Amino acid sequence: MTDLGRMLAALGFLLLVIGGALLLAGRMGLPLGKLPGDFHWRGRHTEVFAPLGTSLLLSALLTLVLALLNHLRR
Questions:
Q1: Nearest to 41 by CA among 50, 28, 33, 53
Q2: Distance between CA atoms of 2 and 6, rounded to whole angstroms?
């Protein structure tokens, strides 16, 4: 049971760090959510937001960071 607690604590800390990084990115003027490829449709009664460009950018950055960490662990 302690392993589960440690895993949940680590996940909570990771979410805290990611949230803080996103808040700082917003204050620094980085256009996350407003990149080319981020689609936003407004209808009369609906609104749809699909952040495809931002998702691709964050996925590429996360892939690079994890590859670097994997390389350094070896």
A1: 50
A2: 6
Amino acid at 73: R
Q: How many CB atoms lie within 10 A of CB 61?
A: 10
DSSP-derived 3-state class of residue 64: helix
Which tokens is 74 given?
Answer: 């070896």
Token digits for 70? Answer: 């994997």
Condensed to tens digits (0 to 9), the pLDDT of residues 3-31 reads 899 999 999 998 999 888 888 888 888 78
Specify which residues 47 forms β-bridges with: 42
* Residues near 51 by beta carbon (within 8 Å), at least 6 away in sequence: 33, 35, 38, 39
